[in-house]
Fold this sequence. Notes:
This protein is mostly helical. It contains 3 helices and 2 strands.
Amino acid sequence: MVTAEYFEELKESMVKRSIESLVKEFNRQVGRRSWTSIRGLHDSVLIDTLIEKGVDVSAIYDGVTISFAKKIKLNADKTKVLFA
């Protein structure tokens, strides 16, 4: 079971990271098939953090499901996720 303390630590850690760092973190997950509740939490916080930083993640997130089918990159002004 994930504790509220772990969730807060993860959120605080992600908020401090650059957008580019978060994209690299996402790309490390591409192609991985294993899943655990901790990974699910990590992925959810990652997407939420990108959204909070003003990044359009609609290419990989539809509001319910996150797609790790392809690696991503940022557009020139770092406001939108594109497929790499």
